[in-house]
Amino acid sequence: MADNIETAPEARPTPKQIDELIAKFAQAQSIDVAAAAGLKTMTDATSVMKTELTAMVEKWGGRHTEKSKRLTGLHNFATTTKATRVSIDDEAVEKLRGYLGTSKRPELAGEFFMAHTSYSLVSGPDEKLKTLTMGARLRTKITAMLQGCFKINTNAPSLKVELAELKPAA
Prior knowledge:
This protein is of the alpha+beta class and 170 residues long. Helix content is 45%, strand content 21%.
C-alpha cells in the first residue's frame, strides 16, 4: 500500500489505517480534480489508492445498505456501492417469439415485449399470463422462457469517501 499504510491481506486494517488511507485518497482526488480543471481524470497514484481502498472496503466493510458496504475508521468512512443493470436479451426474446408462433399463440409476443430496434418490457406480463386460458405446461414453458429474456449485470463497485468535519475546540 501507499506511504507507510500497511495492511496484510489476511489482517483486518485498524481504524487508524483506514482513516489514513481515506484521507490520503481524498487529498489525492482533490488535487487531481483541481489539476484537471473540472475533468474527472485520475493520476496513477490516485487510481492505485482507489483500487486499494475499494478492495479494502469490499473485503472488510460491513453491510451498509442492500447494495453497499461501509468501512469506518476513527473519524472517516468509505462506502462502496454496486449497481445492477437489467437488460433484455434480444436472442432469448426471439426464441420466445418463435416458440409462441409454434404454440399457436404468436399474439402473446406483443403482449410481453414491444419491438423497437431492440426490445423493451411492457408493463405487467405476469399479470397478462394470469388472465390467459392455457394449459399448465404451456404456461410454465412460457414463464421460463420469459424469465430467460433478461440479463442482470453487476457493475464494479463505486467508491465514496467522507471525511469527518473537525470542529475547533471552544
